[in-house]
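Long-time lurker. I teach an intro course on protein structure, and each term I like to show students one example going from raw sequence to a predicted 3D structure in token notation. This year I'd like something fresh instead of my usual example. Would anyone be willing to generate the tokens for the chain below so I can use it in lecture? Attribution to the forum is fine with me.
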Amino acid sequence: EDPSLERHFKGHRDAVTSVDFSLNKKQLASGSMDSCLMIWSMKPQMRAYRFVGHKDAVMCVQFSPSGHLVASGSRDKTVRLWVPSVKGESTVFKAHTATVRSVHFSSDGQSLVTASDDKTVKVWTVHRQKFLFSLSQHINWVRCARFSPDGRLIVSASDDKTVKLWDKTSRECIHSFCEHGGFVNDVDFHPSGTCIAAAGTDNTVKVWDVRMNRLLQHYQGNAVVNSLSFHPSGNYLITASNDSTLKILDLLEGRLLYTLHGHQGPATCVAFSRAGDFFASGGSDEQVMVWKTNFDVTDYGDVLKAQKSGTSVDGTRHTPVEMDCGVHLKKTKPQDSGRNQEQQEEETSLTNTLEHIMGQLDVLTQTVSILEQRLTLTEDKLKECLENQQKIIQNK
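-- Reply from a regular --
Happy to contribute to a lecture. Here you go:
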């Protein structure tokens, strides 16, 4: 079955720049040149939230891994963290000295990496909202920066036509991929963490192995590629291009699988849901579209479990190091439909419990953050009192 259009969201008043699903697929966030961030509910008849706070175009949005926060970056040079609720409260990071093009949470939700036209990549702690360090070797705008799945590496893409790989701990650039013939618009890690895909204004998508630093695959298109997203199974890559199309590439076969026409004008952004059963796209036509994936009726759960344990889907052991880009993963057969009801119910209740725990943790972290701020205030007050006492004593 081909991918099919599931929902169609209208509400932005200018080009959509970025889309992202929450963990549970209940919400979809989008950013737009209209300076707004929208949170759409995947449930029919549920109203969307429009978050106003940025003073200029919103260039990027992302849900935190638990789904309890949304980060956005803007042309107003700031990064905001939102609580995606009715109130839509947000805190501001005075981050960069130019447009912020990209925000990305680490998979543990503790760090945030941002990329900007000020040619730097910056890393922040999410809960203390504290700036940690800058990576500054790019010599032009940085369009995109992302953490590897294990959080040890950062990849960044720039208008200096390079993709750089950084070690988060040593803060050094490990490698520069310079094979792009144009600006690099987007880059992301394969779910296995062993390779990256980058999209460019030279109409190409390139996939590199980050252990050998060699080019694995090269897809030549007919238009500028603005955005890409890996399917959680690691078997597919979806792209959004200036010729208004979305293309789904089969990484196992190394070929184009589908071309989808939905947008009028350039397709600007695309993202798979965390389970891979949906993907969303945005365009200069102000539309946000949600598609049902439909291809390959695999039980992705198995693929993901196998990847985590380092066993390939066909049952042979792999150390994660050998998992060559996940590109050798065999397609799994649809599971026996006789999976007993109880097992599924157990899994659902477990998922719900976990989501609840994550929610509680987020609340705790926010509380701790507030307590820390209060403590700082108290300390400052105390210091002031002591200084005043010193002065009084001296005057006496």
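Some talking points for your students: Residues 341-395 form the longest helix (55 residues). The two ends are 88 Å apart (CA to CA).
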